[in-house]
Design brief:
The complex is a heterotrimer of chains A (about 500), B (about 100) and C (about 475).
Chain A (H helix, E strand, L loop, with lengths): L8 H10 L4 H13 L7 E4 L1 H16 L11 E5 L26 H8 L3 E6 L23 E3 L8 E3 L7 H8 L5 E6 L5 H7 L2 E4 L19 E6 L2 H11 L29 E5 L9 H16 L3 E5 L7 H16 L19 H12 L2 H14 L4 H22 L5 E5 L15 H5 L6 H5 L4 E8 L5 E8 L4 H15 L10
Parallel strand pairs in A: 2-3, 9-10, 9-11
Antiparallel strand pairs in A: 1-3, 4-5, 6-8, 7-8, 7-12, 11-13, 12-13
Helix pairs in contact in A: 2-3, 5-6, 7-15, 9-11, 9-12
Chain B lengths: L4 H10 L6 H18 L34 H5 L5 E2 L2 E5 L4
Antiparallel strand pairs in B: 1-2
Chain C lengths: L6 E3 L2 E14 L38 H13 L7 E2 L2 E4 L9 E4 L9 E7 L2 E14 L3 E3 L6 E5 L6 E7 L6 H18 L11 E10 L9 E6 L2 H20 L8 E5 L4 E4 L12 E2 L6 E2 L2 H9 L5 H10 L4 H9 L1 H12 L4 H19 L10 H12 L5 H14 L3 H8 L7 H14 L1 H8 L6 H11 L6 H12 L1
Parallel strand pairs in C: 12-13
Antiparallel strand pairs in C: 1-2, 2-10, 2-11, 3-16, 4-5, 4-15, 6-7, 7-10, 8-9, 11-12, 13-14
Helix pairs in contact in C: 1-4, 2-3, 5-6, 6-7, 6-8, 7-9, 9-10, 12-14, 12-15, 14-15
Classes of the chains: A alpha+beta (about 500), B mainly alpha (about 100), C alpha+beta (about 475).
Bound molecules: magnesium ion and zinc ion.
Chain lengths: ~500, ~100, ~475
């Protein structure tokens, strides 16, 4: 029998339905694999009982001849940004240490309602602020992928980042600890870690997935989405995650399309735009080569390639690094040591001193940095020059995309400007780290659906991703283009198990 | 763009994050770099451009005036570092 | 007419400039952004949703009724209603503010310019209203239950408030008092706020500055959360005098937030950090712009009641005196009661006099508000009808009214059962007159001899003999005839 942990969502779902194996067997296989992978530090909390309960419910339903739910028997990982009832939820920050939500986020509830079970809570960059998973208060995740840094034996392995902020999710999927996991994407936090670990991930249109119960980073950008081994699994899982939620005022009141049923890798009649501004300075030749390869695959799938221009692309990152920290500085004001989480009360401290001590002790450096930037750009005298200007630039960026949609259906770009880097390699230079998101941030600012699919390996044997960006609400075209590339890329590489 | 330590301290105080002098020294050039980098936005001519108000065209929905929540004091207080007699407790505030 | 309230300083007269920011709690079942109840007086933290406690990942969804009530209030003061408005976050840290920000409206308020007319010393003055915006209330801090701790109750956290910001158009404590009373009256007419200042449903932030008449505006101070009309007037008086003292002593007024102490009638500076005014307002990214359509506005307008100004004008046109019209329109309950009385058929002028004297007198004695009146408007209309059609004399009506107050009975029945009907039966009255004259022959002679004043004596005797039930007009006529 095949190793059940080699299976993705569709294969597990179908296997359980057909009785090829039980959901319990699947859960047990993954639970054991999670338990054996502590050195990756991907999970902050393991919840085997949750996974077993869902599996048993699926097996019972099948035995009773009931129609199985869409994700019956599928155990998944849950990014720790999602509040889960009765299970510690920390956003990988000390400031939320010990916090056990008395509520379940809408997205996780949707997944449980669809029959999925939870293997545990996944490590991440603290408050989703980071691109390498190094800002977690509970230690960074280590990518299952390794890069040979040479040495006499040729085996000086540099521990690599799994990307961020959904790095626990990407590492866990790539290491076959779970078939799929939730991610959240504010400026690329689903797509970049997916690219770094050779998996697929989609950020849907802003408003598709409810933000209710998801620890907020930057409200106008945050979107949940699935991360999985392939495009079909992403489609299945996104169908379960998405949906209107009256408790989120920005949630879209629309039916969830049948994305899986609509999958087709045939791109005949489709136009794929290649934004010329994404050819950035110092882009590694391998990234450029992969992009060209992607274009060739798209053509092969029947698409017409058109060059488009997104003239404000270079301003997306600075605009993002005003808007996201500004929103974050306010969203994170609630972590004050009064109602939940950490409280640091030095002797004789008054209320305001308690706040300052609590927040100094509870937030990590990157979180503090962003709160400071956000506080600065909103403070008296700077608001218009920074925040208002950034919000106007954001309008221009959205207009660029609107103009592009007049000549194409989706855009194809690299996901990240490099393959996964070594842990510690960029942590000294915040701006170098921020530049990782150069290709993912513009579509985040415009609220567009975008996904990363594996395209191939670089010379060091590390995965590289291609990004597809679509029109608002047109996740189907994004998934289909992703599928076309996936079918042609034939990406089967997986990290050798060393952990 | 240069940011001095006094500014760093003022911002940290506004954000209620205690910092030491050494941290302020360290943060000043770091924040200065980041702010200097984002200042390139000033180049963009945004004269008659409206700031973005909704990421995706959508209308604010209003809910009905119905009591649907509350009455869950235990859940509200469950995670509190200090709760007494049904209240959250904080160091005494003198107004 | 400009009020001439002045403060006598050592250097001459000073003018006081006053603006009020009134926080009025919107009447609603649930909070502005959560489904928790707004009922007053509940056990601590029992009316708190996870949203109000700012748990991680919780999101605001606005309550339509709160928006509607603010729009109706704006319409009531003929203000501009902004069909496009937006919520902003006002960021500051305090234990009664769980989110670390208040959701309010700074840049694009729901309601723009309007005005309120006040009357002071028989003169009418228009006070400008700059804006009305909708925002969340904070929770409550309790300081006296523990020696070293303050306690936080979030029951009020997230309750909807309207902040009604006046122009600095008032020039005396009396004008400020009149403005507050008028505003309260309008809110209660509209039904958008119960105006209950004791329960904190209305609080005023009082902005005061002083200047030599004709000078530019001086630096103002803001005295926070003053919760009665009397206290507002006191606070202004004290603060204006304090400012004059400071300036005349060579000092300078600093723009600051102050607290009013009702026990001493004074204001004092709040120990505030210098950053208190750097609120870092920005649009709340959890909420989209609030766009109102015509159907919504039409419904708001259609549901507005007749407001005090219009009502007063109608009363005047119905022959009611200006004094009575003022009294009857001051409180919405009175006006409602009076309108019900008119609807039940009472004649306006007669009814207004009766309410202003008889009913108010009785309620005063009983210590009851008009909404608890033992006599209903329809019963009162019936009573006034019995006077109008001559069934009851004025004094009989008073008797009947007393019985009504006691028994809550209908006047017609009371008159019937107790035989209180006045008589216009000339035969019966003539007979009594004859008896009275026979018993007082000396006075008849005196009267006929020119002592006109004795006429009243005969009226009194006749009425007394008839137990007050004779129609006084008929008695007068017949007496004149009999006495010659
Ligand atoms: Mg105010
Ligand atoms: Zn206010």
């Amino acid at each position: 029998m095949t190793d059940l942990t080699d299976l993705g969502i569709a294969a597990i779902r179908d296997g359980v339905r057909e009785g090829a194996f039980s959901a319990r067997e699947v859960a047990e296989a993954f639970v054991a694999r999670v338990a054996a992978a502590k050195s990756l530090n991907a999970f902050l909390v393991e919840t085997p009982d949750h996974a077993f309960a869902a599996a048993d419910a699926a097996d019972k339903a099948r035995a009773a001849g009931e129609t199985l739910k869409p994700l019956a028997g599928v155990p998944i990982g849950m990014k720790d940004l999602f509040c889960t009832k009765g299970v510690a939820s920390t956003a990988a920050s000390h400031i939320l240490e010990g916090f056990v939500p008395p509520y379940e986020s809408r997205v996780s509830q949707n997944l449980w309602d669809a029959g999925a079970g939870m293997l545990g809570k996944l490590n991440m960059d603290q408050f989703a602020m980071g691109s390498s998973n190094e800002t977690s208060a509970f230690g960074n995740v280590i990518s299952p992928w390794r890069r040979s840094d040479g040495g006499a034996s040729g085996k000086n392995w540099a521990p690599l980042t799994p990307g961020g902020s959904s790095g626990g999710s990407s590492a866990a999927i790539a290491a076959r600890l779970c078939p799929a996991a939730t991610g959240t994407d504010t400026g690329g936090s689903i797509r970049q870690p997916a690219a770094f670990t050779g998996i697929a991930g989609i950020k849907p249109t802003y408003g598709r997935c409810s933000r209710w119960g998801v620890v907020a980073f930057a409200s106008s950008l945050d979107q949940a989405g699935p991360m999985a081994r392939d495009v079909r699994d992403c489609a299945i899982m996104l169908e379960a995650m998405a949906g209107f939620d009256p408790r989120d005022a920005t949630s879209l009141d629309l039916d969830v399309p049948k994305w899986e049923a609509g999958l087709s890798g045939d791109l005949k009649g489709k136009k794929i735009g290649i934004p010329k501004e994404y050819r950035v300075e110092n882009m590694p030749a391998e990234i450029e080569a992969l992009w060209q390869q992607g274009i060739a695959w798209a053509k092969d799938a029947g698409a017409e390639i058109v060059e488009v221009s997104l003239p404000h692309t270079r301003y997306a990152l600075p605009a993002y690094y005003i808007i996201a920290p500004a929103e974050a500085s306010s969203n994170l004001a609630r972590y004050d040591g009064v109602r939940y989480g950490l409280r640091d009360l030095p002797d004789g401290a008054n209320l305001q001193e308690m706040y300052a001590a609590t927040r100094a002790a509870g937030f990590g450096d990157e979180v503090k940095r962003r709160i400071m930037i956000g506080t600065y750009v909103l403070s008296a005298g700077y608001y218009d020059a920074y925040f208002t200007q950034a919000s106007k630039v954001r309008t221009l960026i959205a207009r660029d995309f609107e103009a592009a949609w007049e000549s194409c259906d989706v855009l194809l770009t690299p996901t990240a400007p490099s393959a996964a880097f070594a842990l510690g390699e960029k942590s000294a230079d915040p701006i170098a780290m921020y530049l990782n998101d150069v290709f993912t941030v513009p579509s985040s600012l415009a609220g567009l659906p975008a996904m990363s699919v594996p395209g191939g390996l670089d010379a060091a044997g590390l995965p590289l991703g291609l990004q597809i960006i679509g029109k608002p609400l047109d996740e189907q075209s994004v998934l289909n283009a992703g599928l076309a590339i996936e079918q042609r890329a034939g990406f089967t590489a997986r990290p050798e198990q060393w952990w | 763009m240069s940011v001095d330590t006094a500014t760093v301290k003022r911002i940290a105080s506004l954000a209620r994050i205690a910092i030491t002098d050494a941290e302020a020294e360290r943060l000043a050039p770091e924040l200065g770099n980041i702010l200097g980098w984002i200042e390139q936005l000033g180049e963009v001519d945004t004269g008659d451009v409206a700031p973005m108000t909704a990421v995706i065209p959508n209308h604010l929905r209003l809910r009905d005036d119905v009591v649907t929540d509350g009455g869950a004091r235990d859940a509200v207080l469950a995670n509190a570092p200090q709760a007494e007699h049904g209240f959250f407790a904080v160091p005494k505030v003198i107004e | 007419m400009e009020s001439t309230y002045r403060i006598q300083g050592a250097t001459g007269e000073w003018e006081v400039v006053i603006g009020l920011e009134v926080h009025a709690q919107v009447t609603s079942n649930a909070k502005l952004f959560s489904g928790a109840s707004t009922a007053f007086g509940a056990e601590p933290n029992t009316q708190v949703s996870l949203v109000d406690a700012a748990m991680p990942g919780m999101l605001p969804v606005p309550n339509r009724e709160c928006i509607r009530q603010a729009v109706r209030t704006g319409m009531a003061i003929e203000a501009q209603i902004n069909k496009w408005s937006r919520f902003d976050r006002k960021n500051y840290f305090y234990a009664d503010l769980p989110q670390g920000y208040q959701i309010s409206q700074l840049y694009h308020p729901l309601v723009g310019e309007g005005s309120i007319e006040i009357e002071v010393d028989d003169a009418t003055k228009t006070i400008g209203v700059e804006r009305i915006h909708v925002e969340q209330d904070a929770g409550k801090l309790m300081h006296d239950q523990h020696p070293t701790r303050s306690y936080v109750d979030l029951n009020r956290s997230g309750v909807a408030l309207m902040e009604i910001v006046s122009r600095p158009d008032m020039r005396s404590p009396a004008e400020a008092g009149a403005y507050l009373r008028k505003l309260r009256s309008i809110l209660r007419y509209v039904g958008s706020c119960d105006g209950n200042m004791e329960e904190g449903s209305m609080r005023a932030d009082v902005n005061v500055s002083v200047r030599k008449p004709g000078d530019d505006l001086g630096t103002r101070t803001e005295t926070k959360n003053v919760n009665s009309v009397r206290f507002v007037m006191h606070a202004i008086e004290h603060e204006a005098n304090r400012q004059v003292d400071v300036i005349e002593a060579g000092g300078r007024i600093v723009q600051e937030t102050r607290l009013y102490d009702p026990d001493t009638g004074t204001t004092r500076s709040m120990r505030s950090k210098e950053d208190a005014h750097d609120y870092r307002y920005f649009p709340d990214p959890d909420l989209l712009p609030l766009e109102l359509d015509d159907a919504f506005l039409d419904e708001c307008r259609a549901s507005l009641p007749e407001l005090p100004g219009a009502k007063r004008a109608r009363y005047l046109s119905q022959g009611i005196t200006p004094y009575n019209a003022g009294v009857l329109t001051a409180e919405v309950e009175t006006a409602r009661w009076f309108d019900a009385l008119l609807e039940a058929g009472a004649a306006p002028a007669q009814a207004s006099n009766w309410v202003a004297s008889e009913l108010f007198g009785a309620l005063n004695r009983l210590g009851k508000g008009i909404e608890e009146s033992p006599v209903s408007p329809s019963q009162a209309a019936e009573l006034l009808g019995l006077v109008a059609d001559g069934t009851l004399s004025g004094s009989l009506a008073k008797q009947v009214f007393e019985i009504m107050l006691e028994t809550r009975g209908d006047p017609g029945k009371i008159v019937e059962e107790r035989g209180l009907k006045q008589t216009s039966d000339t035969g019966a009255i003539e007979q009594v007159i004859a008896e009275v004259m026979a018993a007082n022959e000396d006075k008849v002679a005196d009267y006929r001899g020119g002592k006109d004043k004795l006429f009243g004596f005969f009226v009194g005797q006749t009425m007394k003999a008839m137990q007050g039930k004779a129609n006084p007009q008929v008695v007068n006529e017949l007496l004149k005839k009999a006495l010659g």
